[in-house]
Design goal:
The complex is a heterodimer of chains A (106) and B (181). Chain A has 106 residues and is of the alpha/beta class. Chain A is 26% helix and 25% strand. Chain A has a five-stranded mixed beta sheet, with helices on both faces. The longest helix of chain A is centred in the middle third of the chain and has 11 residues, at 50-60. The two termini of chain A are 14 Å apart. The model of chain A has no long low-confidence stretch (mean pLDDT 91). With 181 residues, chain B is an alpha+beta fold. Chain B folds into three domains: 1-84, Orthogonal Bundle (Arc Repressor Mutant, subunit A), CATH 1.10.10; 87-128, Rubrerythrin, domain 2, CATH 2.20.28; 133-181, no CATH class. Chain B is 23% helix and 20% strand. Chain B is built from three helices and eleven strands. Chain B has helices at 26-37, 42-49, 53-73, and strands spanning 9-10, 22-25, 77-80, 83-86, 90-93, 99-101, 120-122, 129-132, 135-137, 144-146, 166-167. Chain B has a three-stranded mixed beta sheet with strand order 1-3-2. Chain B has a three-stranded antiparallel beta sheet with strand order 6-5-7, with no helix packed on it. The longest helix of chain B has 21 residues, at 53-73. In chain B, 28% of the residues are buried. Classes of the chains: A alpha/beta (106), B alpha+beta (181). The complex binds zinc ion (3 copies).
Chain lengths: 106, 181
């Protein structure tokens, strides 16, 4: 299963980015192959519609879950209709490898 | 979602002016429209509105009770832009501290979406997460439509009067007369 994580940078040491639509990178982590892919967020600088465009982007990668610090109401509704699970981490001091470690439970 | 109703409500015939109308929210109107006018199944209607089946059922039941109340008691119905309910119940995880929702409504939730712990608990709060919908309104005929995010209201033109619309509930300032186009 693929999971998207919003990241503030392009390495596993980067911290989770708390903003979904305007995060710096999306990390697509595959829980089966354990591969990670860092995708720069092309919607980062969008004045408008960054949220929905980012939903499209991660949905097109076939993710089933998204981990971030916050989701706007519109984004939540879109993910709901796509049946993609949202995970909100209030503790945004976690870095990407720590989030991946949590996802890699036995 | 589609357009809100293009009129403001109903009044019963042969009764004095109603002071206490039944307020039917837009999503309730929409639920009745989908189920009883378009004849969607509840599942299709829920999908159309982007909400879960249980939430849809809740809205639809509420709509029917309100309509029945108006019908039986001879009360007026006023449409109001209410809220959009996007549903998915939320849970918190004691083990990792995250919050997660549950979009696959049919299955029961047993594990944290992040760390898989079973130490989870449903978040109750007010029971549903709601957002208020913004409306644009025509200053001439009063037509209301759901405001398009990112489009200034005055770029929305009323199809009946060709008037530029403005945000409902916002006083129109800068010396413009609101009853003029
Ligand atoms: Zn957890
Ligand atoms: Zn008009
Ligand atoms: Zn508007």
């Amino acid at each position: 299963m693929k999971v998207a994580i919003t990241s503030s940078g392009n390495s596993p040491e980067s911290l989770l980015d708390s903003r979904f639509g305007r995060c710096s990178y999306f990390v697509v982590f595959d829980t089966e192959s354990l591969s990670t892919e860092f995708i720069p967020n092309p919607n980062k600088e969008n004045i408008d519609g960054a949220g929905p465009a980012s939903v499209q982007l991660v949905a097109s990668r076939g993710v089933k879950k998204v981990v971030s610090g916050e989701f706007g109401s519109k984004v939540k509704a879109l993910f709901d209709s796509l049946q993609i699970q949202l995970i909100v981490l209030n503790d945004i001091d976690k870095n990407i490898s720590e989030v991946i470690k949590l996802l890699n439970h036995k | 979602m589609t357009n809100p109703p293009h009129f403001k409500g109903f009044t019963p015939i042969g009764l004095p002016e109603e002071k206490n109308p039944v307020v039917l929210h837009y999503e309730e109107y929409e639920a009745v429209r989908l189920s009883d006018f378009e004849l969607y199944t509840q599942l299709e209607a829920a999908k159309e509105m982007g909400i879960s089946r249980p939430t849809y059922t809740r809205i639809y039941e509420s709509a029917r009770r309100k309509i029945a109340m108006a019908f039986v008691k001879g009360r007026a119905i006023v449409f109001e832009g209410g809220k959009v309910y996007f549903d998915s119940e939320w849970y918190s995880c004691k083990a990792c501290g995250c919050w997660f929702n549950h979009p696959a409504k049919e299955d029961e939730v047993k594990n944290c979406g992040l760390c898989n712990s079973t130490e989870i608990q449903q978040f109750h709060g007010n029971g549903k997460h709601t957002i208020t919908v913004d409306y644009c309104v025509c200053p001439q005929c009063g037509l209301e439509k759901v405001h398009t995010h990112g489009v200034p209201c005055n770029k929305d033109i009323c199809p009946h009067c060709n008037c530029a619309m403005h945000r409902k509930g916002t006083p129109h300032h800068n010396g413009f007369r609101i009853n003029k186009c």
